[in-house]
Amino acid sequence: MVGKNAKGVERKTPFWKIIQRYNGKSFLSGGQGPDAYDCLGLILAILRELDKIGEIKIFDGYTIDNYHLFYQGDKDAADRELVKFYEQFGDHIEVYEKVAGDPIIVESKSGRLFPAIYVGNGNFIAAFTDVGVRVFPLKDTLMKCVKARRL
Question: Sign of torsion, CA 64 67 144 131?
Answer without folding.
Answer: positive
